[in-house]
């Protein structure tokens, strides 16, 4: 019925299937983390997906090297340009999310208000976060 070779091949196939299923679960967790992060940053995740980039040694928040998966994704601020981002996963835990630098678009009215304040008080540094809180 079953010899050792058949049993070994069956176990290898089951192991590969389990590893693939586990990897898909990690990818889904990475996608959920990226969706939350993009919502917090006020950017739009494009294609609603993350793509596996590599599996290898990655640095965690403490600077130690650990085995991790790196996924890449794209996002947009204005809908015109695509920007890249990466998420590192250490098993089911998020190791970090990095977004490429992007320009923050402001409305023409907000830009005029900012210019008026700069003319009124020359040399004053305007903190963008404080300015946004005052205007919202």
Could you walk me through the main structural features you see in this protein, from its secondary elements to its overall organization?
The chain is α+β, with helices and mostly antiparallel strands. It folds into 2 domains: 4-102, no CATH class; 106-136. Helices cover 43% and strands 28% of the residues. It is built from 3 helices and 5 strands; from the N terminus they run αβββββαα. The chain has helices at residues 4-41, 108-120, 128-135; strands at 44-45, 51-59, 65-76, 83-90, 93-99. The mean pLDDT is 85.
Brief sketch in words of this structure:
The chain is of the alpha+beta class. The chain is built from 3 helices and 5 strands; from the N terminus they run H-E-E-E-E-E-H-H.
Structural class: alpha+beta
Please tell me the total number of domains. 2
Calculate the mean pLDDT score and round it. Answer: 85
Indicate the percent of residues in helices: 40-55%
The count of DSSP E runs of length 2 or more, i.e. the number of strands, is 5
- Count the DSSP helices: 3
Assign an overall shape.
elongated
Low-confidence stretches: none
> What portion of residues belong to β-strands?
25-35%
